[in-house]
Structures are given as structure tokens and as C-alpha cells.
Specification:
The protein is α/β, with parallel strands linked by helices. It has a single domain, classed as Metallo-dependent phosphatases (Purple Acid Phosphatase, chain A, domain 2, 4-Layer Sandwich), CATH 3.60.21. The protein has 8 helices and 13 strands. Strands 3-4-7-9-8 form a 5-stranded mixed beta sheet, with no helix packed on it. It has a 4-stranded mixed beta sheet with strand order 2-1-12-13, covered by helices on one side. The longest helix has 14 residues. It is globular, with a radius of gyration of 17 Å.
Length: 250
């Protein structure tokens, strides 16, 4: 069984359209989304509408939850843009998404960890950068449910990575489909940069053995960057979409 895994779209419908076309070309038995769907300086409403039209199973991310839990004026830029663009029904749809999914036997899908949508699973912050978490920390975050799975797919960190836990699952993070970098100004302060503007997803094949393809595709990121400028985002948002780097790194 071949399952395409997308995550952290952040309202970038241009990246989503390209990924769905690529997935169809490569062939997949199913596609799943791991959350943080709409929040971003892009096309929140169109992103939700496209995902809803596919009927694909989706996990709720922390930003999906925040834009429903909080009033628009109390939200940060990317969440406020989404809150204003989405209908009440669309926000409710996001809020009602499950925190975890088991789309195939032995496969556990989460946004952050099995128990948290704001905790990275395979990374920790070191000197304001994301680095691989110690195995003991990873096992603790997985918990009994995660350790019992064959494969755990996660998002949230936007950092492509894969870890085989001894005596436990293969953990796969495809990286972000729609936002290749970010800066977090609250504790623990850190930043993440993919280094290129490509849209990222994973293809997981479940058979006698597990195979994983980490895929990065080109799309019209200039269109997405122009959209960020049009909706009045911080200029850093358009810059990271165009380059995969924060302005200070470039």
C-alpha cells in the first residue's frame, strides 16, 4: 500500500495543487494530511475547499485549533489572515478534525506527537535551531501508542527527517508542503529553514518491508510569494517562500 503524506500546508494552495498533481502522477492508494492546513499568508479558504473536495483524511494541527479557539484580533498574523478568510463552517471543520489517525494497520498519523500538537516529535531546540532529539526523549514522546506502531508519520517542525526507533516504529516527517521556513519568537525561540523553496511530502509504502520516498517538487512559488505580499504579510513570509531561507540567512 502506497500512502502519500502531506503536512503543514499553511494556506499555500499553489503548493497543494502541485503536490496533488504529482501524487496522482506517481500513483498512491491514499493521501493523508497531518494538519496546519489553512493558517498562512496565502489562500486559506481555497486550501480548505480543495482538501474537502478530495475527501482525504486529515489530522488537526495546532494552528487549525488556534484559529477556532481564539478571536481574530487576538491571533498572530498568519492565524488572523486565516480566521478572516475562512467561514465559520470551515473553521468548525478544522476544529473537528481528529488529533490522530490510523489510516492503515500499523500506521499512526499525528501532527506533533501522539499526545500533543505543539511538541516536535523527532527534534529538540539547541542554540535556537532544531536538532535530532535523543532516543530516550523520542521514546517518551511516542508513548505506548506510538511505540506499538510500525510507522509514525508526523509534521509540525517543518523539518524533513526519518528515525528508526530500536524496538519501535519508523518515524517519518515529510517536511512542510507550503512553508519552507519560519522563526519562533516565543520560548523556546528557534528558527527552521529548508534551504530551498520546494514543496515537500513523503510517499510511504507499507509491505513486507517499509519504503519511504522523501519528495521535493517545484511549483509556482513566485505566485505564492506574491500572494503573501498582497495579503499584507511580513516581508519575511514572501522571502522564505521564494528561497527556503529567512532574510537574515540569505
Amino acid at each position: 500500500m502506497r500512502i502519500a503524506v502531506i503536512t503543514d500546508i499553511h494556506g499555500n494552495v499553489a503548493a497543494l495543487e502541485a503536490a496533488l498533481d504529482d501524487i496522482a502522477r506517481r500513483g498512491a492508494d491514499a493521501t493523508i494530511c497531518l494538519g496546519d492546513i489553512a493558517s498562512g499568508a496565502g489562500w486559506p479558504r481555497a486550501t480548505v475547499e480543495l482538501l474537502q473536495s478530495t475527501g482525504m483524511p486529515c489530522v488537526r494541527g495546532n494552528h487549525d485549533r488556534w484559529i477556532t479557539e481564539h478571536a481574530g484580533e487576538k491571533l498572530g498574523m498568519q492565524d488572523r489572515i486565516a480566521h478572516e478568510d475562512l467561514s465559520a463552517d470551515q473553521r468548525e471543520w478544522l476544529m473537528e478534525l481528529p488529533g490522530t489517525l490510523e489510516p492503515a494497520p500499523g500506521l499512526l498519523a499525528v501532527h506533533g506527537t501522539p499526545d500533543s500538537d505543539v511538541q516536535n516529535l523527532i527534534e529538540e531546540v539547541v542554540a535556537e535551531r532544531l536538532r535530532p532529539a535523543p532516543m530516550a526523549v523520542l521514546r517518551e514522546r511516542l508513548g505506548a501508542r506510538g511505540m506499538a506502531a510500525r510507522v509514525v508519520v508526523c509534521g509540525h517542525s517543518h523539518r524533513t527527517g526519518m528515525v528508526q526507533v530500536p524496538g519501535g516504529p519508523l518515524v517519518v516527517n515529510p517536511g512542510s508542503l507550503g512553508l519552507p521556513g519560519f522563526r519562533i519568537s516565543r520560548e523556546p525561540m528557534h528558527r527552521q529553514e529548508a534551504g530551498t523553496p520546494h514543496a515537500r511530502y513523503a510517499m510511504v509504502t507499507l509491505g513486507a518491508e517499509v519504503a519511504v520516498e522523501m519528495i521535493a517538487i517545484g511549483y509556482d512559488w513566485e505566485r505564492a510569494a506574491r500572494r503573501a505580499d498582497e495579503v499584507g504579510a511580513n516581508p519575511a513570509w514572501a522571502h522564505v517562500i521564494r528561497t527556503g531561507l529567512l532574510p537574515e540567512s540569505a
